């Protein structure tokens, strides 16, 4: 479906995810998110491999308690602090909003981002196509 690759549609989905997150945070409503872990998720400090290797392609993060209190949106990134593993190892989690597949309250899915599991066309790939086009050689110095 071409719609899922349309950049304007993807931007619309990011805007809607962001608005959902902000609404929940501003109204003190705890929730969970399902994140597509392919890329766009970072941990600071990085988690030990024995923990990070347990994450599946789609991972559920509960945004409640201290994690909820630490959560905020900055630009197109959802940021929160959480403890992981039996030792509750703390890390700040940075999630690109476009990687959030679902927002869940209790057992109810309240939002689905249909573009979260679709690969993004990379800027690098676009640039390579540009470079490989012989008509674009005039834009480069020899």
Protein architecture, described:
With 142 residues, the chain is an alpha+beta fold. It has one domain: SspB-like (SH3 type barrels, Roll). The chain is built from 4 helices and 8 strands; from the N terminus they run H-E-E-H-E-H-E-E-E-E-E-H. The strands form 2 sheets. It has a 4-stranded antiparallel beta sheet. The chain is globular and about 55 Å long. The mean pLDDT is 87.
Supply the CATH architecture.
Answer: Roll
Uncertain residue ranges: none
Principal-axes shape call: globular
CATH class (first level) name:
Mainly Beta
Structural domain tally:
1
Number of strands: 8
Q: Kindly name the structural category.
A: alpha+beta
Mean pLDDT across all amino acids:
87
Largest sheet: 4 strands, antiparallel
Task: Reconstruct the topology from this structure.
Layout: H1 7-26, E1 31-36, E2 41-44, H2 49-52, E3 58-63, H3 65-70, E4 72-74, E5 77-84, E6 89-96, E7 100-105, E8 108-112, H4 123-132
Antiparallel strand pairs: 1-3, 1-7, 2-6, 4-5, 5-6, 7-8
